[in-house]
Amino acid sequence: MNQLQVLLHTALIDTGHIEKCGLLLRDTNQIKTTSVGYKLEQTDVDTLVNAFNQPTLLRKKGLYFNEIYYTCIRTDNESIYAKENNRGLVLIKTKVYILFGTFNDRMNPAIAIEAVEKLGEYFKAKEQ
């Protein structure tokens, strides 16, 4: 594992409340790193990076990511929360990255959101 994968696993996966996660580069729509073994399609990367560009449309139409249609439950300039039944997706925008994490029906949404938000705050503090 590279250093960023270790950070993702330590801060998110090891909580037991994040299923999969990743870090995407905002400027180039490229994957910086993901949780071990997680493969993203470029269309999914584009969807997540561009999600912050049209918040009103996102609230109305939701988000299709990783073959799941999510309903947007919160969006602002720096974060997006979305759900599909008992599954969820959290996105955090920083200066350089889009950080995301998914959780499933066996995981606590509040803890999942808090974990992703805290890691996002870490990157913001480092101006990344």
From N to C, what is the helix and strand string? HEEHHEEEEEH
The helix count comes to 4
C-alpha-based Rg, rounded: 13 Å
Q: Which class best fits the helix and strand makeup?
A: alpha+beta
Helix content: 25-40%
Largest sheet: 7 strands, antiparallel
Keywords: Actin-binding, Cytoplasm, Developmental protein, Differentiation, Lipid-binding, Spermatogenesis
Main location: cytoplasm
Subcellular location: Cytoplasm
InterPro entries: PFN, PFN_euk, PFN_sf
Keywords:
Beta-Lactamase, 7 strands, 4 helices, single chain, globular, 128 residues, seven-stranded antiparallel β-sheet, alpha+beta, developmental protein
List the helices and strands and how they pair.
Blueprint: H1 3-11, E1 20-25, E2 30-34, H2 42-50, H3 55-61, E3 63-65, E4 68-75, E5 79-84, E6 87-93, E7 97-103, H4 109-125
Antiparallel strand pairs: 1-2, 1-7, 3-4, 4-5, 5-6, 6-7
Question: What's a quick, concise take on this entry?
Answer:
InterPro entries: PFN, PFN_euk, PFN_sf. This protein is of the alpha+beta class.
How would you sum up this structure, described in words?
One of its GO terms (biological process) is spermatogenesis. It is found in: Cytoplasm. This is Profilin. One of its GO terms (molecular function) is actin monomer binding. This protein is α+β, with helices and mostly antiparallel strands. The protein has a single domain, classed as Beta-Lactamase (2-Layer Sandwich), CATH 3.30.450.30. It contains four helices and seven strands, in the order H-E-E-H-H-E-E-E-E-E-H. The chain has helices at 3-11, 42-50, 55-61, 109-125; strands at 20-25, 30-34, 63-65, 68-75, 79-84, 87-93, 97-103. A seven-stranded antiparallel beta sheet has the order 2-1-7-6-5-4-3, sandwiched between helices. Strand 5 and strand 6 (87-93) form a beta hairpin.
